[in-house]
């Protein structure tokens, strides 16, 4: 061989959807008995998820206990700012209104007048702004439309497109699966999770079924239908069980009611059938799913790569090496998770600071304590996910390496004995 000639290399498999069955370019496909075992583990989970979806699927017959005023909403563009006429046609000092072109909702395509918020800290509305307006049919003329919020649809759409392009540029074909998984998760939550909870189904049961349905589809869609994805799914499942049990125990012992903010109070008033304590647990389970996905997938892929680099490594060696990766990953992920929950309560903590509440009392307030429970229970779920997933992955990767070596030895034996065949 010429010194300038490179030895042939095994081509890396296409990562497109059509080749997602490839386990690893070196480890090769999983043997049949291992695939059967994986199917035996996943099959009952799939069946239980489908049964849960059927039993808990909302029937659309939702009745609110206190529907209140019939208010509709739409979008509009501000064309001119004018003084507002309220209270029997008299001008109100400081009050402002705007002429608007209604873009969607009641009166679509018409020009009308909308009352704007006023006061020292009211949002500033300018000509050309796109706003969300509420429409009350029974209100006096000139007061039927009122400013509710700014319409942030266009910038959010632009940001979404940038996000999708970034995912596709970095992940290529796998990015399509990731985006499809994200869309599926959001649609499932909108059409199943939220209506089922609103109709009075157990929020924890709905969250478990939702998490299972999301996990089964998104892991395989994003990472391919292979043993690695199954290992990551099993690790995620065990961790979700840990999170659900710990969350139930500590929210029960801590006397959490779930009735801590305006949203919860509104729901309790208009939909008394919703279990707010269960809703807290549901948010905990679904919120932890995305982080667990990241941890379990990373650990599984790390074990596979380590097994490829060192085919002679034992299960214990693979586990030890991958755990060193997992410890660093878990430490950074737990920190990220806890800081995210701390950030969610930062404005409230400022209120407690202004009131000079002792730290122990401030953190015991339910609105803060529930974020503490979410962060710590989610962190414990991550800590459980690392060794569980790493252990399963090490066992299976070592088995694949052994089967590969046995296959090569069988091939050499068959090739050597071929001349003795008739």
From TrEMBL:
Pfam families in the record: YibE_F (PF07907)
Transmembrane portions of the chain: 36-57, 153-171, 178-198, 204-222, 234-256, 276-292, 337-363, 375-398
Composition bias, Pro residues: 1-11
InterPro entries for this protein: YibE_F
Region: Disordered, residue numbers: 1-26
Keywords assigned by UniProt, alphabetized: Membrane, Transmembrane, Transmembrane helix
Protein name according to UniProt: YibE/F family protein
């Amino acid at each position: 061989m010429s010194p300038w000639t490179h030895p042939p290399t095994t081509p890396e498999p296409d990562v497109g959807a059509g080749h997602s069955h490839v386990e690893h370019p070196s480890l090769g496909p999983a043997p049949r008995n291992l695939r059967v075992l994986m199917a035996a583990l996943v099959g009952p989970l799939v069946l239980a998820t489908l049964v849960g979806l059927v039993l808990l699927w909302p029937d659309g017959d939702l009745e609110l206990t206190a529907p209140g005023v019939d208010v509709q909403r739409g979008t509009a563009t501000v064309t001119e700012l004018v003084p507002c006429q309220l209270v029997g046609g008299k001008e109100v000092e400081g009050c402002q209104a705007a002429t608007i072109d209604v873009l969607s909702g009641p009166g679509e395509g018409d020009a009308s007048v909308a009352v704007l918020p006023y006061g020292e800290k009211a949002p500033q509305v300018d000509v050309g702004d796109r706003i969300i307006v509420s429409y009350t049919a029974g209100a006096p003329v000139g007061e039927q439309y009122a400013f509710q919020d700014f319409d942030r649809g266009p910038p959010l759409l632009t940001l979404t497109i940038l996000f999708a392009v970034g995912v596709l540029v970095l992940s290529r074909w796998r990015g399509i699966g990731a985006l499809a998984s994200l869309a599926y998760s959001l649609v499932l939550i909108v059409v199943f999770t939220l209506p089922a909870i609103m109709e009075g189904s157990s929020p924890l049961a709905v969250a478990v079924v939702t998490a299972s349905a999301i996990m089964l589809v998104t892991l395989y869609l994003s990472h391919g239908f292979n043993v690695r994805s199954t290992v990551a799914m099993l690790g995620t499942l065990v961790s979700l069980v840990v999170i659900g049990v710990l969350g139930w125990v500590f929210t029960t012992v801590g006397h959490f009611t779930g009735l801590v903010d305006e949203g919860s109070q509104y729901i309790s008033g208009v939909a008394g059938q919703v279990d707010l304590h269960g809703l807290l647990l549901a948010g905990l389970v679904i919120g932890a799913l995305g982080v667990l996905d990241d941890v379990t997938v990373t650990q599984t892929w790390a074990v596979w790569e380590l097994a490829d680099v060192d085919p002679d490594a034992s299960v214990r060696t693979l586990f030890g090496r991958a755990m060193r990766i997992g410890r660093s990953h878990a430490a950074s992920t737990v920190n990220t998770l806890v800081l995210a929950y701390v950030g969610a309560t930062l404005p409230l903590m400022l209120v407690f600071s202004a009131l000079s509440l002792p730290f122990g009392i401030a953190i015991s307030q339910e609105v803060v304590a529930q974020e503490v429970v979410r962060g710590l229970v989610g962190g414990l779920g991550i800590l459980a996910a690392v060794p569980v997933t790493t252990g399963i992955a090490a066992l299976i990767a070592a088995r694949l390496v052994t089967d590969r070596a046995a296959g090569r030895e069988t091939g050499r034996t068959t090739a050597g004995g071929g001349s003795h065949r008739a």
